[in-house]
Amino acid sequence: MKRLPLFKPEPGAPTYWRSLAHLADKPEVNDLVEREFSDGASTLDTTSRRSFLTVMSASFAAMGLAGCVRRPEEKIIPYQKMPENLIPGLPQFYATAVCDQGEALGLLVECHEGRPTKIEGNPDHPASLGGTSSWVQALPLDLYDPDRLPTPIHLEAGKSDPVPRMGDELPGLPGKIDPRHLPAMLVLPDHLPEMRAIRRTWDDALGELNARLDGLRGGGAGLRVLVEPCASPSLTRVKTALLARFPQARIAEYTSTGGGQRAGLRLATGEAVSLDIAYDKANVVVAIDSDFLNTDPGSTLASKRFSRGRRIRRSADRLNRLYVAEPAFTVTGMSADHRAIVPASQAEDFLVSLAAELGKRGVAMGALGGKLRPAGTADAKFVAAVAGDLDKNRGASVVVVGPRQPAPVHALALAINEALGNTGKTV
């Protein structure tokens, strides 16, 4: 075989080095450079080609004989007792409902062999109209979450383990805690509260709970139940049955956001009421620190209704207009016709300025009329434009406030809607 000549650099050409050791002209490095293959690579093996083929032929023959063995027949069935109306491989659909931030939302769930895999809105449900939110679409992932709590947790009195501090070694993890890996605003206490969490089985937890409930005296005095807000008729019946058995017990509803709206409506009306906003009947929508198209309670129905005002079916139809005053960019702000940046702390000032501007235009603000003064923090030009559009669309407009705003702000928004004649029409 023809061999290629060794490469020799031309005189005066630059020299390239593979490493610093090569540059230092060490003998062991030069030896590795000159030898292309390792030791023993050029030594021929004593096994001949005939011997190799003999060994391989025997191996292939043994593999062929192994494939001729008849294995015993085994039957695999998917269920010990076959469920009715179930064909393996074909999905089943169930109509159900979930509680989305206190609002009931009708769903259609696709299941395969009893396992939920896809969620869509129920078109026959009045609160969803066939739509869902991104949060609802991700609900099946919770069922397969390895960190999901599988059993009840019982808190018992007892000193807990110290919270790991910066620089402490963590058992089972290499290295130490690095403050760069923690949130900037995270503050760790020296110790957790004097409670210890113990996992219990469902039978043990329910047995102990029933024993303690049977031992309550005085009509259940001292029994407190904390739940999240939910408009579920089934949950309401359970609450009623519990209070019927324990008249002195108390059931409290709490949510970290959204409590201001209920408190504001009670402050304005004196009753426990909720809002049902008909966005499809509003020509002008003013959203103040509210993302009613994405994250606010009832956003699925709100987006369905609002989109109807964005469709042109006849030449006489006109698009609705959306004014948004918010501190951060949201989906609602992205859809706005006019948007202003208003900090969440200045939402009340914006509403006060808006109510004062409406009063100047002849909108009767009732008892608030003589007490309202424009706030200096509000954009006067933007407020005047919003007030002018609301004045032209009395009875066909709506002013909505986000759930995180306090009760007085919600009460003021309801008063503005009442003064504009929106109550009973769009609100």
In short:
The chain is α/β, with parallel strands linked by helices and 427 residues long.
General description of the model:
- Among the domains are: about 90-145, N-terminal domain of TfIIb; about 215-255, no CATH class; about 260-420, Dimethylsulfoxide Reductase, domain 2.
- It is α/β, with parallel strands linked by helices and about 425 residues long.
- The protein is extended and about 110 Å long.
- The chain is built from 13 helices and eleven strands.
- The model is unreliable at about 160-190 (pLDDT under 50).
- The termini are far apart.
- Helix 7 (about 235-245) links the parallel strand 6 and strand 7.
Question: What order do the helices and strands come in, and which of them pair?
Answer:
Elements: H1 20-23, H2 27-34, H3 49-66, E1 92-100, E2 103-112, E3 115-121, H4 134-137, H5 139-143, E4 153-157, E5 195-199, H6 202-214, E6 224-227, H7 233-245, E7 250-253, H8 259-269, E8 284-288, H9 299-308, E9 321-326, H10 331-334, E10 338-341, H11 347-360, H12 380-392, E11 397-401, H13 407-419
Parallel strand pairs: 6-7, 8-9, 8-11, 9-10
Antiparallel strand pairs: 1-2, 2-3, 4-5
Helix pairs in contact: 8-13, 11-12, 11-13
The CA-CA distance between the termini, in Å, is 93 Å
Largest sheet: 4 strands, parallel
Radius of gyration, whole Å = 36 Å
The count of helical stretches stands at 13
CATH first level of the domain at 261-419: which class? Alpha Beta
What structural class do the secondary elements suggest?
alpha/beta
Share of helical residues: 25-40%
Q: Poorly predicted ranges (pLDDT <50, ≥5 residues)?
A: 161-192
Order of helices and strands: HHHEEEHHEEHEHEHEHEHEHHEH
Provide the residue-averaged pLDDT. Answer: 79
Strand content: 5-15%
Assembly annotation: single chain
